[in-house]
Amino acid sequence: MLISQTAHYALRAVYYLATNGDDKWHLTKEVAKATNIPAPYLARIMSTLAKRGILQSRTGMGGGFKVGKESLKYDLYDIVSQFDNLENIKDCVFGLNNCCEDGECELHKPWNDLKSQLINLLKSVSLKDMQKSFKHFEL
């Protein structure tokens, strides 16, 4: 997979928040249960996203996390890039040490094309798009 488990979990959590009401605060344990993500791990992910301004957070009674209206400008790439540097993936599919510097293996070009397509796809979908187009999160 081209993105890490952490980035994958971040996308799932933000998807849940974006499709379940942008004005409603959600507790980490609620999101964890709905998305089947371990709650302690998810808490760190959501805290990172809140520190970077992608999510809003509030402590205390009635607190939690949400995708606020100002967060809708972010795209999926903004979320993934908090955890993964997709622009700098240099791993060879076959594990060759010098492949990506020299373009040696048969899959070098298709692999780079695939990475570019993934980056472009993630940049093409905003949280606003996701909120408008996608159904409520269901497992």
Task: Please give the structural blueprint.
Layout: H1 5-19, H2 28-35, H3 39-51, E1 56-58, E2 64-66, H4 76-80, H5 99-102, H6 108-124, H7 127-133
Antiparallel strand pairs: 1-2
Helix pairs in contact: 1-2, 1-3, 1-7, 2-3
Tell me roughly what share of residues is in helical segments: 40-55%
Look at the structure and give the mean pLDDT: 84
Helix count, DSSP H or I runs of 4 or more residues = 7
Q: Enter the CATH topology name of the domain at 5-84 and 126-133.
A: Arc Repressor Mutant, subunit A
Strand line-up of the largest beta sheet: 1-2
Q: Radius of gyration, rounded? A: 17 Å
- How large a portion of the residues is in β-strands, by DSSP E? under 5%
CATH superfamily of the domain at 5-84 and 126-133: Winged helix-like DNA-binding domain superfamily/Winged helix DNA-binding domain
Tell me the structural class. Answer: mainly alpha
Question: Under the CATH scheme, which architecture of the domain at 5-84 and 126-133 would be assigned?
Answer: Orthogonal Bundle
Task: Label the overall shape.
Answer: elongated
Largest sheet, in brief, is: 2 strands, antiparallel
- Terminal Cα separation, in Å? 21 Å
The strand count comes to 2
List low-pLDDT spans.
none
Oligomer: single chain
Please report the first level of CATH classification, the CATH class of the domain at 5-84 and 126-133: Mainly Alpha
Strand-and-helix sequence, N→C? HHHEEHHHH
